[in-house]
Amino acid sequence: MRFDIRKLIYILIAVFVSSIAVISFYNITLLKEKIYNEKKKSIKNIVQTTFSAIEYYQKLPIPDQQKKKLIKQLINSLRFEKNNYFWIITDTLPPKMVIHPLDKNLNGKTLTSKQFDCSTMIESNNTVKKLNNENLFTAMVSLVKKADNGYIIYKWKKPDSNKTVQKLSYIIKIPHYNWILGSGIYIDDIEKEYKNTLFQYLKFIIPLFFLIIILTAVILKKINTLQKKLHAKQKSIENIAYTDQLTELLNRASFDKKFEEILNESCKKNKKFSILFLDLDNFKPINDTYGHDIGDKVLKIVAKRVKNSLRKNDIIARIGGDEFVVLLPEVSKENISEIIMKLNNAVKKPIKIDSLLIQTSVSIGYSVYPDDGKNKFDLIKKADKLMYLDKQQKKQKD
Question: Which of 91, 174, 318, 349 has the most CB within a 10 Å radius?
Fold first, then answer.
């Protein structure tokens, strides 16, 4: 009888351990896919955020050559994580390198050398196509001609080791200059992150056979810790992609997303909403007189004042140097004058920074859906027009 009970216990333990092993293997497999997909998503978000910055430069009232210079300076300075950078090529055939921040010998060169026959896969519109070591940059041009953006896998030298490894890049077309912007992540870095995570699992497997109950709790705790780390990393990437780093408000990319959401919801439910354009008056003289550090502090204080003056569900974003935009869900023209007055009163209070007392004001324009337009272009155009009219009227009074 004892033998039977012992045998039963052994069987139960074996089943339990086997189940844990199967479950662990399944979770590890999912974890690898999850890490890859998160990295894939993150590189897309980072490139799209940089693309938004380039779009901002394109709208500046300066000559094209100066715009291109600013864009190149931006691309040359941007880095993220350890080995990652941005680059720009032309979308012509044959393609040429506009700027490569690490391999400056490529700048201005036609990219037809055999050394670039290294692309193995392209993906656009959820369609994957395998390549047999075709010219990397020609493949990029082919991709954006069909879909404007997508992923490409190829072999490239890694900066820290000078070894040729696989790289996953996301590329997007810059139509105004016939350029292609791209950046990538090295797949072996993803593999290393996966292996490090796998090691964290494996170091518990052998002791698990001897201390099942205790080590099961440890493993569950470890899984929870890893999930929190992954969640925190994802939040960090989203924060970079969707938050203005100076004011901690939403940025242009995040505003565009929120705008589409509110527009679609208002259209379906036949509700009104308003958009406000805010532009600080005479902000350039503040920068010129007191310096950019003081100017940044002024922007942060103004952003906080505007945010504190809004309702709980209102959305505020910084879309330019001294430009802000506010979305007011479920609001009509009857309420807007009161909100604008509240914002004006909040901003025009003197700002005290150290021994300085700085006077500010803001010009505001607005539009209401659907009274002033039923699409993004018309609503923004109307709000922008009224904002400039408000600014002109203030200049005439001065």
Answer: 318
The C-alpha atoms of residue 386 and residue 50 are separated, in whole angstroms, by 29
Domain range spanning residue 325?
252-397
Structural domains of the chain, count? 1
Residue 301 located in a structural domain: yes
8 falls in which pLDDT band (50, 70, 90)?
Answer: low
Examine residue 192 and state whether it is found in any structural domain, yes or no.
Answer: no
Under DSSP, the state recorded for 321 is: S
CA angle 293, 297, 298 (to 5 degrees): 115
Q: Token digits for 323?
A: 């430009």
Q: Nearest-CA neighbor of 57 among 240, 181, 243?
A: 181
CB count, 10 Å around CB of 343? 20
- Report yes or no on 70 lying in a domain: no
Whether residue 139 contacts residue 124, with contact meaning beta carbons closer than 8 Å, is answered with: no
Q: Is the Cα torsion angle 62, 63, 67, 69 positive or negative in sign?
A: negative
Helix (H, G, I), strand (E, B), or coil: what is residue 315? strand
> pLDDT digits over 318-369, tens only?
988 899 999 998 776 678 888 899 999 999 999 998 888 898 899 999 999 9
Do residues 40 and 66 lie in contact, with contact meaning Cβ atoms separated by under 8 Å?
no
CB atoms within 10 A of CB 139: 22
Q: Residue 388 — φ and ψ, nearest 5°?
A: -65, -35
Cα separation, 361 vs 348, whole angstroms = 5
Runs of H (alpha helix) within the chain = 2-58, 64-77, 136-147, 187-208, 212-242, 252-269, 283-290, 292-309, 333-347, 376-397
**Token code pair at residue 300:** 């942060």
Instruction: Residue 246: name the closest of 303, 306, 171 by CA.
Output: 303
Please check whether residue 200 lies inside any domain of the structure. Answer: no
pLDDT tens-digit series, residues 208-229: 656 655 555 555 566 566 667 7
Torsion angle (degrees, nearest 10) of CA 56, 59, 64, 66 = -50
